[in-house]
Input
Amino acid sequence: MASDQVTLLDLWASPFGMRVRLALAEKGVKYEYSEQDLMNKGALLLQMNPVHKKIPVLVHNGKPVCESLIIVQYIDEVWKDKAPFLPSDPYQRAQSRFWADFVDKKIYDFGRKIWMEKGEDQEAAKKGFIDSLKLLEGELGDKPYFGGETIGYVDIALVPFYTWFYAYETIGNFSIEAECPKLIGYCKRCLKKETVSKSLEDPKKVYDFVVMLRKKYGIE
Amino acid sequence: MDEREYNMAEEVKVFSTWASPFALRVIWALKLKGVEFDTVHEDLINKSPLLLQYNPIHKKVPVLVHDGKVICESLVILEYIDETWKQNPLLPEDPHQKANARFWAKFGDDKVMQSIGGGVLLKEGKEQEEGFAASMENLKYLEDEIRGKKFFGGETIGLADIALGWLAHYLDIVEEIVGLKLIDQEKFPSLAAWKQEFANAPIIRENWPDRDKLATKYVAMREANLGKGTPK
Output
């Protein structure tokens, strides 16, 4: 393991990239971070992810792994002696996978519509987004983290999206905390952990990034 | 067997519909591992209270119930099955190969199914042309991945084969309905060979849904989708 070569092809604002950064931080893995220009994709990215041409891509000893949750599972399996992300019981593992999949299906898609759409479409997205967060609150229950006493797979899947909440709220003109105080409390609790705070980006910077994207796509 | 043995026997139930390619994955996986189970046939127009209780979030099939434990989402169920019944493994041990299998299963659901189902079956004219082009691009990636292998899983059927398996039967029906050839023997020889191999594999070949029933269903879906927004 001492001679492991680990590189992460990423974009600073990507919540998917932040998942991988958090996973690597939790395992204490040293890696090279390589910021990608998605307007001008480099040869390495195209070679390592020819199918999707997207980030994040983890390159481990020359071999690529693509798709953020697949990468997080890979990290958990390779660096298995520390901070396990998934429980050992198959049923508990299935529950974790279900909820991480739920985050992918709901949080990202609704969130995207909040900053890309207007009028009725945006309102529908806001409702879907809040409804989904409330379901996640239900799943969290009284636990400090979705993983129980420690950060796990679902936490890693979800908490990076917190960095985009300020952008969603400002553009969508609503307060996520007013609707889902428990979830916001949970996110703030996660941020107290050093691995989380150093892996997540500043929400204000993310907001500026989203404003730039909206201009680029001609959304006003 | 005596009462104690009976009570210790596992109870495995699969909630499915006759047409669902997702539920079929679960049935294949259980049968490939020799696991006994009961099927609960659902009617999606008239979902049973039990289905809604077991899958309140998505309200869909398949649902697996194993000794009272409920698991939803077909790919999640497949991994649970593989971890619970370890004979005839669907995933390799090596983490990189495992990641690769998961990648292609996800690619199938996120891209291939979308382009063929949403882009070709349910569209016409220019939109269908675009859907067709996207489908061909996606199939090319599958062709490159399967080349030189009997199955996506190697010598034996694996997770990616089960996830992509719908291509070996459901696709024929789509092709007939829209009059377009997608897995063309000349364009995609390796994928066409895989299709044959998989469609005729033991267990797989015994569980395909009825072609004519599927054709009727898909024609209705296509017409319903095309009928939307056009003045009558």
